[in-house]
């Protein structure tokens, strides 16, 4: 296990991580966090017992610094961090779209940086996180990050060049599922079901389908064919989905998200 861990910026994602690390067995004394607003800091300390510190203290005392501020807040944070972070400190960035080169330009030469694209199901311990090493991060650093993040979900390693695709798939992915669920609940209303019943039917169907995919390891085509009987109800619905180009819409949608992620990343990477 790693030594102490500091979360820099304990908002939604930072708090989810703190809470997950505690549930996963980390001791309160091993953790610390930084926050801009004293009221928010006091609230988190009261809730979790974890100490709020300033950035300089976090950088001096923690072996791992997890950066979880909004991407637009990164520059002032790096200015605060730069005088204190050394090659012995592992910097883990959860900030969407920020390349490791941005950190490497601001911090001392040799400071290892690992970039992570998590997603919001981290708040329920079901995140999908993709991690990529910067120039000075080794396999050991990646293993540390894998161990840390595995308490709040699953982790895969990808080259940093694939992070825009990851952002479009799993980063934004939960939003696509929420959108589909919302549309299907509306369909229930259209068919005359009460909203509460429609919500229950669709949400549990989504949970059930996701659990089958995760637990059986079967290909989605096999699972779908198993409920698509000849001249039955499901194939009538599938015909409409194909007629309306839903598959093509998803391909286009995810490609557009990837393009936007590339565009946003360029703002932080002049190379
Ligand atoms: N939420 C998601 O769906 C999601 C998914 C994947 C990745 N991420 C990434 O996770 C990061 C955090 O997102 P979030 O949704 O958790 O944002 P958030 O709720 O706004 O949390 C960021 C926190 O950091 C604090 N902060 C900002 N600058 C600071 C500084 N210099 N020192 C200490 N604290 C500072 C902010 O305080 P203030 O309130 O004063 O601004 C806020 O409490 C982002 O970079 C985002 O790209 C988020």
TrEMBL record:
Binding positions for NADP(+) per the UniProt entry: 68-71
GO molecular function: pyrroline-5-carboxylate reductase activity
Limits of the Pyrroline-5-carboxylate reductase catalytic N-terminal domain: 5-97
UniProt protein name: Pyrroline-5-carboxylate reductase
Predominant place of localization: cytoplasm
Annotated catalysed reactions: L-proline + NADP(+) = (S)-1-pyrroline-5-carboxylate + NADPH + 2 H(+); L-proline + NAD(+) = (S)-1-pyrroline-5-carboxylate + NADH + 2 H(+)
Keywords: Amino-acid biosynthesis, Cytoplasm, NADP, Oxidoreductase, Proline biosynthesis
Family matches, as InterPro entries: 6-PGluconate_DH-like_C_sf, NAD(P)-bd_dom_sf, P5C_Rdtase_cat_N, P5CR-like_CS, P5CR_dimer, Pyrroline-COOH_reductase
Pathway: Amino-acid biosynthesis; L-proline biosynthesis; L-proline from L-glutamate 5-semialdehyde: step 1/1
Localization: Cytoplasm
GO BP: any one term: L-proline biosynthetic process
Claim: Transmembrane is one of the keywords in the record: no
Lineage top rank: taxon: Bacteria
Family matches, as NCBIfam families: proC
Function: Catalyzes the reduction of 1-pyrroline-5-carboxylate (PCA) to L-proline.
Pfam families: F420_oxidored, P5CR_dimer
EC number: 1.5.1.2
GO cellular component, one term: cytoplasm
Similarity comment: family membership: Belongs to the pyrroline-5-carboxylate reductase family.
Keyword Cytoplasm: yes
Domain Pyrroline-5-carboxylate reductase dimerisation: from-to ranges: 160-264
